[in-house]
Amino acid sequence: MTRPAKKPGEEVRKGVEMRADQVEVSWDGNKSKWLVRIVSGGEVIRRHCDLKKDADEAALRTAAMKTVQDEGYEADASVVKVNRERTATGA
After folding, report:
1. pLDDT band at residue 86 using 50, 70 and 90 as cut-offs
2. pTM for the complete prediction?
3. Is residue 37 part of a domain?
4. Domain housing 40
5. Are 77 and 68 in contact (CB under 8 A)?
């Protein structure tokens, strides 16, 4: 019997939980979008979201948690930090 080909993201072993240690949301002035940084161990994932610059904190936290889930991670809402003072850079 032939096994179906793996889909992207299926390389993760079943039962292994990927937890985000830190999640930060900050404004990326270069792209004029909010940047969600997900830190898990030594890995850092950066994803942009299309919320308006004046989005409230609840909307930013919700978008951050959705991004975490979309990337296959789990996180407690308590690790999400919204940083309005710092401007994110693409580096």
Report:
1. low
2. 0.76
3. yes
4. 22-85
5. no
